[in-house]
Amino acid sequence: MATDRRSADGEFRQKLRREMIARRQALPPAELARRSAAIRAHLDAAFPALAERIVGFCWPVQNEPDLLPLAAALRARGGRVALPVVVRPGEPLAFREWWPEQPLLPDRYDIPTPTDGDFLTPEVLLLPVNAVDAGHYRLGYGGGFFDRTLAALSPRPLAIGVGFDFQRVDSIRPQAHDLPLDAMVTESGCRRPAGEE
């Protein structure tokens, strides 16, 4: 029975992931730019001390919110920002410092990745979502990289999800390894779990 439930949950999550990625990729460029700008503004307003922390963020792929202008602005204010590096499948991510014009090469998932620069330990992670639920559980791409990374880093970084309003769902059917986000930022604002507003 438990196996049947896990199988059904897995199918549900795969279908939800595909649907949400398709909706995101259907966004016209101007709409994606508008929503990304709103997300960056809300991040800056809700977390004004980001430039004082080491911030890990993700290179935008498949029409994810574009945080590159925010990362550049944090650097201009004296902050340090880093991109994730897949060391080996099944292991936590490492993070390498990023700066504009840094040389990048596609990794095994075809995501631009730094080839040099210092390895940093992020204090804040800005995590794209494919879906996020009422419990602040995030549906990613299914590799488990960020859950392993959050579980491995001590102290745990502040985990802030970034995505669009249409990616909010009642439940992603979280699994035992899933860890909730500390906050979620969309084009309409920042939300924290109940009791942490």
UniProtKB/TrEMBL annotation:
It is an enzyme of class 6 (ligase). Gene3D superfamilies: NagB/RpiA/CoA transferase-like (3.40.50.10420). Its EC number is 6.3.3.2. Keywords: ATP-binding, Ligase, Magnesium, Metal-binding, Nucleotide-binding. GO terms for molecular function: 5-formyltetrahydrofolate cyclo-ligase activity; ATP binding; metal ion binding. GO terms for biological process: folic acid-containing compound biosynthetic process; tetrahydrofolate interconversion. Its cofactor is Mg(2+). This is 5-formyltetrahydrofolate cyclo-ligase.
